[in-house]
Design goal:
Strand order of the largest sheet: 2-3-1-4
Number of strands: 4
Structural class: alpha+beta
Strand content: 5-15%
């Protein structure tokens, strides 16, 4: 016998455990808010830009071949910037007690498509330190690339600066709370249907039909004490009026 579930049954299942769903969503939201505001360390970001250009020469100002060569070099520069040869010098200059691997995890190097501009972004719990790392990395790379590749085609386009009231890029409490609310509701709904699926007790005549596969001919409803008293009172009133009352 094929079982079908109507929208009314789904609604009844959700309504039966609505407080459990709401409780799970509230707990998840509160936990996310507490963790975001009081547990997670705010992380700040600062970035600087480098321009990869051609050396001064007697060639035309805009040499397509030279520009293409510089664009190809950018991928190489991305690797060199995050290499120990650069980062060890950055840590030494800033007097930081960190390894090149730890410093590497703070730095992101990228470039716009078909652009000769390199961007060095740094994330750190201290906004001023993030700025210092970005500027120092750019300066060290500009000086060391002359020795490493024997080229002098890198210039600092824009230095990193620390704002007066910097805002952390993460965590984002409102976003985390919204995600936690949605996840909490989904978890509550999922748990509700799981409990309903595991509950194999017989509660009404519909369950009897499903389990036995037989139609229900009648049902006996439970009467409360109040209903019983009201029923006896109505019977006595009928007897006084001379009316017949069938049981």
């Amino acid at each position: 016998m094929e079982e079908t579930i109507s929208l009314r049954e789904l609604f009844y299942t959700l309504r039966k455990r609505i407080w459990m769903i709401i409780s799970i969503a509230v707990v998840a939201t509160l936990a996310s808010g507490i963790i975001s505001f009081y547990v997670l360390t705010p992380i700040y970001s600062s970035s600087t830009q480098l321009l990869v250009n051609k050396e001064k020469s007697d060639q035309p100002m805009y040499n397509v071949g030279e520009i293409q060569t510089n664009l190809q070099l950018i991928n190489t520069y991305n690797v060199i910037i995050k290499s120990p040869a650069i980062l060890d010098l950055v840590a030494k200059e800033l007097d930081m007690d960190v390894t090149s691997e730890q410093l590497n995890a703070k730095i992101t190097v990228g470039s716009e498509k078909d652009s000769q501009v390199l961007s060095i972004s740094v994330q750190d719990a201290d906004p001023q330190m993030a700025t210092d790392i970005a500027n120092t990395t750019a300066k060290v790379f500009q000086n060391e690339i002359v020795k490493i590749m024997n080229v002098d085609n890198v210039s600092i386009l824009a230095q990193a600066k620390t704002k007066e009231n910097p805002s952390p890029i993460k965590p984002r409490p409102l976003l985390n709370i919204a995600i936690a609310l949605v996840v909490g509701l989904m978890a509550g709904v999922g748990l509700t249907f799981l409990l309903e699926y595991l509950d194999n007790t017989i509660k009404n005549e519909m369950d009897v039909e499903k389990v036995l596969g037989l139609p229900v001919l009648g049902a006996i409803h439970t009467m409360s004490e109040k209903d019983l008293i009201n029923g006896l009172g109505n019977k006595q009133q009928a007897e006084v009026r001379g009316e017949s009352f069938g049981v």
